[in-house]
Amino acid sequence: MFSRRSDLPLDRDAHSRFLPWLIAFMVFLSVLAFAGMLVLKEVAGRWDNGVSGTLSIQIAPAADPADDERRLGEALKILAATEEIERYEVIADQRLMALLKPWLGDIGDAGELPLPQLIDVELKSGTRINTAALEQRLALQLPGASVDDHQVWLEQLVSLIRTVQGVATLVLLFIALATIGTVIFTTRTGLAIHREAIEVLHLIGAQDSYIAGQFSRRALWLGLKGGLFGLTMGVPTLMGVGYLVRRMDGFLLPNMQLLPYHWIGVGILPVLVAIIAMLTARTTVLRSLARML
């Protein structure tokens, strides 16, 4: 397709030499924005599956440490009598200390701190529970007990992620519009430079579609060239960000790695940009030639 003979010396146009670099920069930005959208969607899905339908119950430590076991037993009786609850598990002190270690550091034995009793609760599938009523029942027997409904902060988190995804979508849209505008400007400049040659081609019977095909093939080649260069810049950047995320503590950041099918989507971006450039160039030429006649 790229080796077909061209009757217009488009390869000699100095203005077209900048088009691949502009497209490379736009593809680089689109790779980052698109990858960010995919990662945020995957993280939101994992958190939704892992946290939705769960509760955390916190029982404040009693003034007398010997009374903690009794208070915990009363709480477990209340949970066992609640129909909406599928399973509950008491968080061991060692596990609780491991959760606190990123913020408090290694502070020794758990007995040195007045740690609350934590109970991880899983609800039955498809059921909802009145957390306020459950907290009130617990508070009547166990003053200082509280219920943490993860759905509240999860909805806020999902709302934030959707907002960021919307911003990333706007960025992709602006990149597409900038690419279209750049190709239109470059194509119209080429038409103005080769106007006399185009008129000669019309005189010897060349159709508008034939002339448009030469510009569209040129735009496709430049789009692929610039898109692949932008991809070669974007992929190492994504890998570098992923490496930095893996080095950070897992308690601070979730797993934000691209999955195999995510990389396929990222690899298709240069092809899509090249197709957009080809269609834009063809449409611009056909409309411009229609006004010239």
Fold and architecture overview:
By secondary structure, the chain is an alpha+beta fold. The chain has two domains: 10-49 and 154-292, no CATH class; 61-144, no CATH class. Helices cover 67% and strands 8% of the residues. It has helices at residues 19-51, 68-80, 93-104, 131-141, 150-193, 195-203, 208-247, 260-292, and strands spanning 54-59, 85-90, 117-123, 146-149. The protein has a four-stranded antiparallel sheet with strand order 2-3-1-4. α1 packs across α7 and α7 (208-247) packs antiparallel against α8. The protein is elongated. The two termini are 28 Å apart. The model has no long low-confidence stretch (mean pLDDT 81).
List the helices and strands and how they pair.
Elements: H1 19-51, E1 54-59, H2 68-80, E2 85-90, H3 93-104, E3 117-123, H4 131-141, E4 146-149, H5 150-193, H6 195-203, H7 208-247, H8 260-292
Antiparallel strand pairs: 1-3, 1-4, 2-3
Helix pairs in contact: 1-5, 1-7, 1-8, 5-8, 7-8
Outline of this structure?
The protein is α+β, with helices and mostly antiparallel strands and 293 residues long. It contains eight helices and four strands, in the order H-E-H-E-H-E-H-E-H-H-H-H. Helix 1 packs antiparallel against helix 5 (150-193), helix 1 (19-51) crosses helix 8 (260-292) and helix 5 (150-193) runs parallel beside helix 8 (260-292).
